[in-house]
Amino acid sequence: MKFSWKSILLWSLPIIVISFFLWQGLFAPITSESNNNTANSRMTYGRFLEYIDMGWVKKVDLYENGHTAIIEAIGPELGNRIQKIRVELPASAPELITKLKNKQINLDAHATKNNPALWNLIGNLFFPILLIISLALLLRRSNNTPGGPGQAMSFGKSKALFQIEAKTGIIFDDVAGIDEAKEEFEEIVTFLKKPEYFTAVGAKIPKGVLLVGPPGTGKTLLAKAIAGEANVPFFSISGSEFVEMFVGVGASRVRDLFKKAKENAPCIIFIDEIDAVGRQRGTGIGGGNDEREQTLNQLLTEMDGFEGNTGIIVVAATNRADILDSALLRPGRFDRQVNVDIPDFKGRLEILEVHAKNKKIDTNVSLSIIARRTPGFSGADLANLLNEAAILTARERKDKITLQEIDKGIDRIIAGMEGTALIDSKSKRLIAYHEIGHAIVGTLLKDHENVQKVTLIPRGQAKGLTWFTPSEDQSLISRSQIKARIMGALGGRATEEIVFGDSEITTGASNDLQQVTSMARQMVTRFGMSDIGPLSLENEDSNPFLGRGMGNLNEYSDEIAIKIDKQIKKIIEDCHQKTIKIIKDNRVIIDKLVDILIEKETIDGQEFREIIKQYTKIPKKI
């Protein structure tokens, strides 16, 4: 850690002040030899005169211009031995000197020892000057250093990171898999560079662009690319940096941010995680005086108030567009909403090519195969996948990344870290039957996804895992596909029932049963796929401020609720009976696959299907 002389001086300020007062209080008063602790006791002036009259005083030393005396006396009261006693003398006592001379007592006067001039200068001049200099440096640091110890007067200043020429090191060529969003922003960059192309036909520059999408899809990366391409001033700030515990600070920071932006227009303001400040109004405890609402009101005014902000483009990113205030989303504020979704196969391949540029990958590894095996992965997931594979390669002292490290990376991202393999026992065999049950039911159902891998190697909380390859298009799912997924999830429990009996059923299917119940309930209450009819009895509009699912009252009668429960039970029981039949009809195949799985611990999806083909026909997947 490096320390500058200013920081050292600032940290030493309390020590300097304490030392000054200690010096003044302890050392400055020492002006004579009277404080040498030679006197063991004290005596009053009247008693001192009595001692002189009785002839007990043998010697007197005067200090501090005759105000203090140290006497040497001997007598019965003093144990007949000489003792030194301190006496405070009155301001005027002329008879004392005469009495001492008459009694022929040895008298000695000691002159006062004054402090040297240098010490007086240090005590009266040096320390105050040093204190003033230290305070000046402290105030200067509070004004120049963001977040410094003296920022009490600058809470209202914007914390936006400002760059005249944003050198993020990222351009549009580095952003892959979101071509539609890139096209939108390439147009905006062109508007900033050559506005005459658009103004010639009466077009106006958009005031705001909202990036909406799941986490890790590249929203912030796209904003960095805009900064790298536009060559205009770029302000970057997070939505959470507007809001503080002090009332009015957020609104003040919004005003300060847009004031700086107007001075540097045309420019770009990027607000990351805008949902931290742009949530729906009317939900705060403080009502209109709520700090977050005041900040949002100021942001709405600055984006489209009475004064136009020509040349300022606000780019914001969020993955919670459902909780944003409607006034923030209207045209004139955020004119465009760009969806940045999970990439498809082509997008994943482009993203892998971007992140593979600086990786040493074996020539036998095909990026297209990796892209096909990772549906549902975001851009951040794919970047993390190649990084995990590179870490595993370095750990195993290999020169290049192979498909083995890629597979381990995929497994780790999906299911967690690899655990210790199970020993061959009853528990291992039961888990093997459970996982084979999932896999064989999914394989023999036409509407279920293909098996990708079955393994007994524990990962995370799971003792064994069965992976299915999800289809590319998950937007529309048929009733038969949902039922197939329910039956696939019930395959593990059904196999335990057939092979081991009801008394040996384990808790391993608890998560499967939760998924089954959820899917069946959605079929009845949301998708209209039951005997109740095409009714939507529940919706996804939950209150984001009370928590998902909280605060939603049932909008149907108790009679309908009973029917819903009966339909859910009917769907699950029907799927369960069909699953039991599949397990019984293929018991020989299941026993064979379990033996292979226990021996190898992992069976690839292709190998799994080849084994099943030896015994029965696999339906063609849709």
From TrEMBL:
GO molecular function: ATP binding; ATP hydrolysis activity; ATP-dependent peptidase activity; metalloendopeptidase activity; zinc ion binding
Domain AAA+ ATPase: 205-344
Gene3D superfamilies: 1.10.8.60, P-loop containing nucleotide triphosphate hydrolases, Peptidase M41
CDD domains: RecA-like_FtsH
Highest taxon, organism lineage: Eukaryota
Sequence positions that bind ATP: 213-220
Cellular component terms per the entry's GO annotation: chloroplast thylakoid membrane
Location of the active site: 435
PANTHER family, A to Z: ATP-DEPENDENT ZINC METALLOPROTEASE FTSH 2, CHLOROPLASTIC (PTHR23076:SF139), METALLOPROTEASE M41 FTSH (PTHR23076)
Family: In the central section; belongs to the AAA ATPase family.
Function summary: Acts as a processive, ATP-dependent zinc metallopeptidase.
Assembly notes: Homohexamer.
Stated name of the protein: ATP-dependent zinc metalloprotease FtsH
Species of provenance: Ophidocladus simpliciusculus
